[in-house]
Design goal:
41% of the residues lie in helices and 18% in strands. It is of the alpha/beta class. The protein has one domain: 3-Layer(aba) Sandwich (Rossmann fold). The longest helix is centred in the C-terminal third of the chain and has 19 residues.
Length: 116
């Protein structure tokens, strides 16, 4: 099995998704990237992100909804999984790192790994 392409998505790609990208950038299981849903995002999510990703990991339901509205053709084709992590943490804050790790590893064990 090759590496899975994981796209982490939050609002502006400055705190949550960027932290997740940093945490998992060296993980041998994944190729990772990150983006934001807002126009003001450091890196705004684009069609090429969705084409590349095997799994799209969003931080909140609103991110899934924005992807659905902006890219309806990908909403049905790509698995989008929500971690339910609110925007209340700083970049690389230890609490955020712990939360991302626990929640993403649970998703990986229960929803992703069993398929491979």
């Amino acid at each position: 099995m090759g590496k899975l392409n994981i796209l982490f998505v939050c609002s502006v790609n400055r705190m949550r998704s960027l932290t997740a990208d940093q945490i998992y950038s060296g993980d041998e299981r994944f190729n990772v990237d990150s983006a934001g849903t807002e126009i003001s995002a450091n890196v705004r999510i684009e069609e090429y992100h969705l084409e590349w990703a095997d799994y799209i990991i969003v931080m909140e339901r609103m991110h899934r909804n924005k992807i659905r509205k902006r890219f309806p053709e990908y909403y049905q084709k790509k698995p989008i999984i929500c971690l339910y992590i609110r925007d209340e943490y700083d970049y690389m804050e230890q609490t955020l790192i712990d939360l991302l790790t626990v929640k993403f590893e649970q998703v990986y064990r229960t929803e992703i790994a069993p398929l491979f």
